[in-house]
């Protein structure tokens, strides 16, 4: 059993919480918008628009592939369908800037909710440090894609579970209903909703572990068990049912594909990673200040840390969830360490009423000015970078009347769908499967693959090894080349179908 935490609320006034939260949301939004077109620098942004348009046009969510020529009719779980509809509507009505603003707003909202929730337990300096680390862990993967829309939901979900445990109760019926609605949205936006269910299970297990007697244990089983059942039922409220719930597990079994995609690889510490800073600060607190946490919370953080060390994509889960998980226990530890010199210096700085009020107002005013200036600087004329948009190459192919099947770079598959061309492969690797991906990467098998799929032309980024191989391959010639893409066409057979 964990030791009892006791009261965890701190004396942060409501006004301070509001000002601090407003400052966080403005600064987070400004830093996201400052990325400009880099917020849209992702190969899948084009396919998300195309899928959203298809759903709006047909009035249904696709369950089979309707876009590629290599896997027509293959079973496909469009697990991000709800946000793809929103992406299509925003782009078609307001353009690229609207997508950037939406992504930045979701990111800023998540950090603001995190800040407000942490201030229930922690003083402003501790909250600021936690939010800054969360910002750093999320920023490398900050692009306007469906996962960004999940960030606020993830923080709300985690903060609500932490609050329930801090009050030594299961979520009330009304509270559970609200969280069920959060889960329904989450499950229809992104496959990471399974993590939310796992988190609920861990808190339920903690409640049972902490129960002082059999009566309390039965109360925990009844209350938390009912909540977990409601949460799972809400997670099934998607067009895909049980397939949507199993989808993340099926993806995790694709070891070859996950090792090949950069964002699913392990964090590269040799090039520097914010995760290293996070680990160092945690060790600093544990070793120098002697911060102690309940065993169950340590286990939770270690599980998420393991996920982040295996796949760098999970670093954002660590940044957004870990501070909330440890906050109640950390509040107790900060009270215990109140006489430590470092804590005393911080308390002396931030507990001066006049200085604190002046700093708060000045910081908020500065944040407003920064957000306005950055928005005026970045938003006008904002457009998607051409890194994954081989517009000139596709236009040259269309002008020449080349209409055969294409063998394309993985990163331009989304743009081909957006341009109305059926790709060989795109970002939906869960649908294509590892066998096709292995054939895609096997240069020695390239002639057979081109023949098996009756390929008429190819489209690859200049540095891709397929380009050099096609340059040497009999029956193929370069048709177009620029800084973004190289096109080869067949010379030993008709190029039209």
What characteristics describe this protein?
single chain; 497 residues; mainly alpha; 2 domains; four-stranded mixed sheet; 21 helices; globular
| Poorly predicted runs of 5 or more residues | 348-355
Proportion of residues in β-strands: under 5%
**Sheet/helix structural class:** mainly alpha
Biggest sheet strand line-up: 1-2-4-3
Annotation field: number of helices: 21
Query: How do the helices and strands follow one another from N- to C-terminus?
Result: HHHHHHHHHHHHHHHHHEHHHEHEE
Distance between the first and last residues' Cα = 70 Å
- Number of E strands: 4
Radius of gyration: 25 Å
Mean pLDDT: 90
Domain unit count: 2
Biggest sheet character: 4 strands, mixed
Shape: globular
What is the share of helical residues?
Answer: 55-70%
Any overview of this molecule?
The chain is mainly alpha-helical and 497 residues long. Helix content is 63%, strand content 4%. The chain has two domains: 14-376, no CATH class; 390-490. It has helices spanning 14-33, 45-58, 81-94, 96-118, 124-138, 146-166, 173-189, 193-210, 214-235, 242-252, 255-260, 274-289, 295-310, 315-336, 341-350, 353-378, 391-399, 413-418, 429-441, 446-452, 465-472; strands at residues 405-408, 455-460, 476-481, 486-490. The protein has a four-stranded mixed sheet. Helix 1 packs antiparallel against helix 4 (96-118) and helix 1 runs parallel beside helix 16.
Brief synopsis:
With 497 residues, the protein is mainly α.
Topology:
Elements: H1 14-33, H2 45-58, H3 81-94, H4 96-118, H5 124-138, H6 146-166, H7 173-189, H8 193-210, H9 214-235, H10 242-252, H11 255-260, H12 274-289, H13 295-310, H14 315-336, H15 341-350, H16 353-378, H17 391-399, E1 405-408, H18 413-418, H19 429-441, H20 446-452, E2 455-460, H21 465-472, E3 476-481, E4 486-490
Parallel strand pairs: 1-2
Antiparallel strand pairs: 2-4, 3-4
Helix pairs in contact: 1-4, 1-16, 2-3, 3-4, 4-5, 4-6, 4-14, 5-14, 6-7, 6-8, 6-14, 7-9, 8-9, 13-14
